[in-house]
Amino acid sequence: MERLPGFRDFYPEPLPSKEAWSADLRQRLFDSWRTTARRHGFREYDGPPLEPLELFTVKSGDEIVGQLYNFVDKGDREISLRPEMTPTLARMAAAAERQYKKPLKWFAIPQLFRYERQQKGRLREHFQFNADIIGEADPAADAELIALLINTLRELGLTDADFVVRLSSRLAWQEFYGERATEPGRSYEFFQIVDKLEREAPERSDAALQALGFSLEAVREFIAAARPTDDLKRILDDLGARGLGAFVKVDYLVIRGLAYYTGPVFEAFDRKGEFRAIAGGGRYDNLLKLISGGRVDLPALGFGMGDVVLTELLKARGLVPAVVAGIDVCVLVEDEGLRLASLRVVQQLRETGCAVDYSLTSMKPDKQFKRAVELGAAHTVRLVRGEDGAISARVKNLRTREEQVLSPDAVVPALSVRHPA
Amino acid sequence: MERLPGFRDFYPEPLPSKEAWSADLRQRLFDSWRTTARRHGFREYDGPPLEPLELFTVKSGDEIVGQLYNFVDKGDREISLRPEMTPTLARMAAAAERQYKKPLKWFAIPQLFRYERQQKGRLREHFQFNADIIGEADPAADAELIALLINTLRELGLTDADFVVRLSSRLAWQEFYGERATEPGRSYEFFQIVDKLEREAPERSDAALQALGFSLEAVREFIAAARPTDDLKRILDDLGARGLGAFVKVDYLVIRGLAYYTGPVFEAFDRKGEFRAIAGGGRYDNLLKLISGGRVDLPALGFGMGDVVLTELLKARGLVPAVVAGIDVCVLVEDEGLRLASLRVVQQLRETGCAVDYSLTSMKPDKQFKRAVELGAAHTVRLVRGEDGAISARVKNLRTREEQVLSPDAVVPALSVRHPA
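ok -> structure tokens follow
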């Protein structure tokens, strides 16, 4: 029986095949995201992987349904697996914001889903690090959020030679559009054309822009000038003061596809341009009002960083360290008559915080030892009965290959990594 | 807009309402599960939350569909959200087992789903710690698995006064049934009646048993005798050697509802009998063969432990510690002219591993200080410009209330929790 197309299985390392995904690497990524977010004062939240379909269409319109993993449940509800986290966050924050001091600085690591028919071989799920700030209109919040994005990638070993955050502004584009537009109501259409400039043939972009009364040349001049708005200047000064200036540049080619952004927007890319965006986000000051039906009106901003592109980038830059099983001690059972006594040592070591493994059944001593080496154990312990019937413990350091002879009760003090609770 | 019935939102503490679920407590549970599993030599894996419906019906028959969160996807596939992890594990292990040394000791922390129409107010999802051993038929594997279950609960602060693992055997029941049955093919029906003995009225159980040629009295005698099979004796000896004998007892009232168990089965209960089972599992030696269509035939066993009952139990026993925001240092910006210099300190402290927060915008000094106390910060740092224009840093220890005056560059060495990488 096969898994569904577009979904991943995550295996323990060493991986069974080159195509397999690593559960160890995934957990390392999640740990790093979590640690960095907490260090920046962000708090974790989560919502259901399923939401009413309406939560997503109210924000993005019915055309989004074509990309959703949606269905009708047994209670005849229109449901969708979440394609992004922001609507869930807006729903949760709108319901509970009165109980929290503003601004909220929240993060989550949801699995997200989409269903596009034509995309063969494309993943239908990924995990995404989401961080958002709710309740602060000042650009200081945008800078703090972007600092988190930069520091998250740095924590994984990436430097300013590896990636850059391209910073733009929906406001700057709105102004540009407003000053020149012949049809003021079609701004979103215009943004969509700009969003595709890097991928689209110039003639097609030019034709599409002409239809709205613009020329590709004028748009390119605006992008080339890259004149930061006052908000962007504040963000750049703030990040510069943190010593993060080299990680960010103004780039109006970035505009973000989603309809709901209202202010600064940004995307992180690898400097070599080999991959899709590593992360992206921006300000969405009107979304909470929309989701809450006008009840709650708070400015907000956030970003998302997916696990797939990031994993590809880390691999390409040699930043994925070899994973070992994480076993500290292997207890070797060479004398089956001492198995129960050995189990006592296993338990005691585990209680002090050691990761311990042993052979469940009788196995040749050399095979047990070889397995301990494979598992990356730092020490082996084996109980030996002497000619006088007394039991001693042989503790071997697998790095130095030195072996100590101890009484069985002295093993735990010699090897424990923490004191008993 | 509301979330779907039966699903939970997880909020950061302090919680917005008494009914709200804590994302912090959930993470603490996951961390504890993960740490304990690794300490026992178990490795993490995960599969998709969606699987082909057939993966679940092949094992449990079509009657299971009434309890599944299943639907038809846009590609006309019959799909289900996973109601349990074992079929996914069996699928993954059957596909890759040749690449791993046996036995596999694997764990996962999946979210599981079910959809029962009648159950108002009942949750339709929960998280479950799953641990399994694949490829070892010896009862030593059952003991190792049960030791993990016991140590997992102990790690959370529960003792042998709080819970017990009730150990039983499908083999013992099969033997009992086989020796007395008039209709050998109806053993699973018989097991289902035994499984409900504790909850069902005695007359109804008796009537149901009579229909299969048994009496309630004979069944009760068998349970009261509690004679361990050879396998159970081996398991008890093994756990006893580890010093875990007080956490386990033979109890044939436990039989487990699922059809696929083949040997020892067990459930962990609170001693006071206030809650549903905390965890349950057993041996399922035929499942991999079934799932793999006969390709792979490996003995296996596992258990699941849900987050909902466990959370209730921990709360009732006072074992849920108060969660603090986890902020180490609050940087107070009392002079807006020093905001950029303060941001530099924020960044430097975070780079050394400190969790740091600060006010994004201008705020009165006493309010900033109050916020630092609320966040549980150990220290505050504020930059002050002296009359001579020189900037100094005031570092306050919020426990002793002592304040040091340092040069701004001396703040990081004074407070850092780790050295820069």
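Chain B has a mean pLDDT of 93.
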